[in-house]
Amino acid sequence: MGMRIDIKRKLLSRSERVKCVDLHPTEPWLLTSLYSGLVQIYNYETQAIVKTIEVSETPVRAAKFVPRKNWIVTGADDSQIRVFNYNTLEKVTAFEAHPDYIRCLAVHPTQPLVLSGSDDMTIRLWDWEKGWKCIQVYEGHAHFVMHLTFNPKDSNTFASAGLDGMIKVWSLGSSAPNFTLEGHGKGANYVDYYHGGDKPYLISCADDNLIKIWDYQNKNCVQTLEGHNQNVNFAAFHPNLPIILSGSEDGTVRIWNSDTYRLENTLNYGLERAWCMATQKNGNNVALGYDEGAVVIKLGREEPAVSMDLSGKIIWAKHSEIQTTNIKTGVDDNAKDGERLALPIKDLGSCEVYPQTLQHSPNGRFVVVCGDGEYIIYTALAWRNKSFGSALDFVWAEDSNVYAVRESATKVKVFKNFKERPGLLPKLNYSAEGIYGGALLGVRGNGFLNFYDWENGQVVRRIDVDSRNVYWSDAGDLIAIVCEDSFYVLRYNAQAYAQYIESGGDPGEEGVEDAFEFITEISDSVKTGTWAGDCFIYSNNSNRINYLVGTETYTISHFDKPMYLLGYVPRDNRIYMADRDVNIYSYGLSLTVIQYQTAVLRGDLESASTLLPSIPDNQRGRVARFLESQGLKELALDVSTDIDQQFDLAVQLGKLDIASGIAHKLDSEPKWRSLGDVALSSWNFKLAELCLKKANDLSGLLLFYTSNNNRAGVRQVADMAIEQGKNNIAFNCLYQLGAMEEAIDLLIKTERIPEAAMLARAYAPEQISKVVNVWKNSLLNKNRKKTAESLADPAQYPNLFPELTKQESEPLLDIEDKQEEGEEASPAEENEE
Fold first, then answer.
1. What is the pLDDT of residues 697-736, one digit of tens each?
2. Which residue stretches belong to region Disordered (predicted)?
């Protein structure tokens, strides 16, 4: 059966003829250089043109990203190499690199080097750290140099393809080729290296319509691929998938199996001749350039083919090679959450199909590999072939000796002890779109899901839901049915189903209604999931890992890239995850914590209290947050070991003595401030005063002291405010105290002299002369003589101030006392009279 590789188009953009494409390694960007002289950057996620650069009035035949410098390097028919900053669009440099058209460029993966190939039949090496100096010229081709590529396994060597039909391999330090591969009858257009370490292969294509694979160690052609009926402009090994991609002037892009060399697929996007392509080293995206535009496609799945058994043994596929590791060897008690585990990797063997999925049997003894429409069951330890067959999908039952395969949309087979049980399932009268294993066999139809009994093949229950996946708990009594944007949790009642069958009931097409009990629906997307006891752990499309207990979900961690859940190992109390490159990470989650939370949600606080002593200290904060979310704040305060959390809970509960003790330990101004607010609302003035002092809340202290007529306190605040330079608060204190002379001096000190004069006139006439004198000197120092001369001192010109009478100013607090006694109010009131 042929290789099954999903192909998803991410971008199709029409434009002028595309002569070169490149993909950015980290951003979702496609770079295209056009025959019209433009270079454009597309965001293939949003379909938008991000940048456009008018490079030349001649065709730009080569353009490459240099991500470590934020550059684009271009080569055009005007013989110029130009470099642009793709963020600012600033031209970094431009220089004549060849006396003829520039056909191709190659950027060294680590060194500051760029290769250029030209119609002048030479290849040149440029060093940008030496001012783009040409440090080597390579001669040997007898016609145009069409393509260049560095060896990914040895970046000191590179290969070139020329219209002389030759493929040449070079070393950076030598101007002459190491060797030449001859075999094409016409001009060669493209050359690429095989990326894996197991084959020393090159691939080339030419105007003879052929693709050739070469062994560059033995220097012989090992395979010739025929199929295109016009010039083949590119042929390359995919860096991550076991395929070859080729494109031709016949308008097609062909996908070949790089192991069997069989043609697997042919793509035609109706954009006329195919000219160029680019792949991502760490991704599955492929860019294609045509006469009438560019296309970006995604090949295969992002999710790695990896599986972990209950003991922590991990097996995964790298191409067709199988590798393994064991987390026992890389995890200790001090493992940090989210830290990559340093695990020893062991080669286990190889696989005869391209693995799309790997799956351990429930007991961990077997591993099934699915791919290319086939399945192969291997022993997990020795990697020996145990059984094989045709399958679009494969699932295990709870019993590792029982499994099912979906051979087609109408045929699902069940096996026991590696032998088929024919006729077990009734003939399907619907199209089976997928199958799921576990306690029951699930078969997905269009908009519904049927569950069958593994033993008798009868329908247990039909559920009308558009499912994407199904996860069973280890006990087989809980199930998560995953849909596009939500998932359902149901409880399976095997006893109710058995009683119904024993009583002679006919389940029919709908099954037994009481077999499943609805528990909850959660609006969240599930990417991968697993059960730990009664707790469902899952990763979602927002790059988070959450867990569900009862009907509540809690976040364990966030990621900055997609992660895939491998499973939960109770021995370690840890969740294990992998990224797309099968780097392994772990996160702590105590099974006791889950059991405790489950007991609390059931309302069984007595059982929960018996579990509490066995909860690790580093998990108590999580438990306390859970209890707080359930409104059990008293219990949360008893459980928590986080001093900040304890303080917050004590404040919320009004336990001011506990909160005060913690605040003394932490001695944090925000903590004292929040405690002071609660103390005030609780009429605990002694504690409130202490908190305001500890928090250095001078405005709060001023309000507090003036409210209870504490002159000594206000004086203390005034002194503190002056010392700390908080002049507004200091002035307010002095004004409240009636200390007008000090208030006036403070205004003068802070250069608020006009305000000082107004204050003196209203409340301290004896200070007016001093203030006027200071005011005049200040104006004279600012060369404002006319304004200074317009100021009049009441002592010198009493005729100008007939209403002004000398009187002693009184402190405001005393004035208020006199108002209560019915005495005169203030100097201001006297002046009004």
1. 777 776 777 777 777 777 877 778 777 778 788 887 877 7
2. 787-833
Is there a contact between 81 and 126 (Cβ–Cβ < 8 Å)? yes
* Interval 380-417: pLDDT, tens: 999 999 999 999 999 999 999 999 999 999 899 999 99
3-state secondary structure of 774: helix
CATH number of the 7-299 domain:
2.130.10.10
Q: How many CA atoms lie within 13 A of 401 on its CB side?
A: 5
Spatial contact of 443 and 435, defined as CB atoms under 8 Å apart: yes
Consecutive H or E run containing 544: strand 544-549
Partners of 81 in the β-ladder? 75, 95
Q: What span, in angstroms and rounded, lies between the C-alpha atoms of 250 and 270?
A: 10
pLDDT at position 605: 82
> What's the pLDDT band for 2 if we cut at 50, 70, 90?
low
The DSSP code for 130 is G
Are the beta carbons of 715 and 721 closer than 8 angstroms? Answer: no
Find all residues with CB under 8 Å of 281, minimum gap 6, and list them: 25, 239
For residue 374, the tally of other CB atoms under 10 A from its CB is 19
Residue type, 603: G
Q: Where are the beta strands (DSSP E) in 353-486?
A: 357-360, 366-371, 374-379, 385-390, 393-396, 402-408, 411-416, 419-420, 434-436, 441-444, 449-452, 459-463, 469-472, 478-482
d(CA 299, CA 6): 6
186 C-beta neighbours (distance < 10 Å), count? 14
Q: Under the phi-then-psi rule, with left for phi > 0, alpha for psi from -120 to 50, and beta for the rest, what region is 427?
A: beta
CB atoms within 10 A of CB 702: 21
Q: Which amino acid, 594?
A: I
Judge whether 7-299 and 698-832 match in fold: no
Overall pTM surpassing 0.85 (yes/no):
no
* Pair 163, 155: CB distance under 8 Å: no
What is the residue whose two structure tokens read 């009683």?
499
Encoded amino acid at 731, one letter: F
Cα distance between residue 377 and residue 381, in whole Å: 12
808 pLDDT higher than 70: no
62, 104 Cβ separation under 8 angstroms: yes
Helix (H, G, I), strand (E, B) or coil at 326: strand
Which CATH architecture is the domain 698-832 placed in? Alpha Horseshoe (1.25)
Domain positions in the chain = 7-299, 698-832
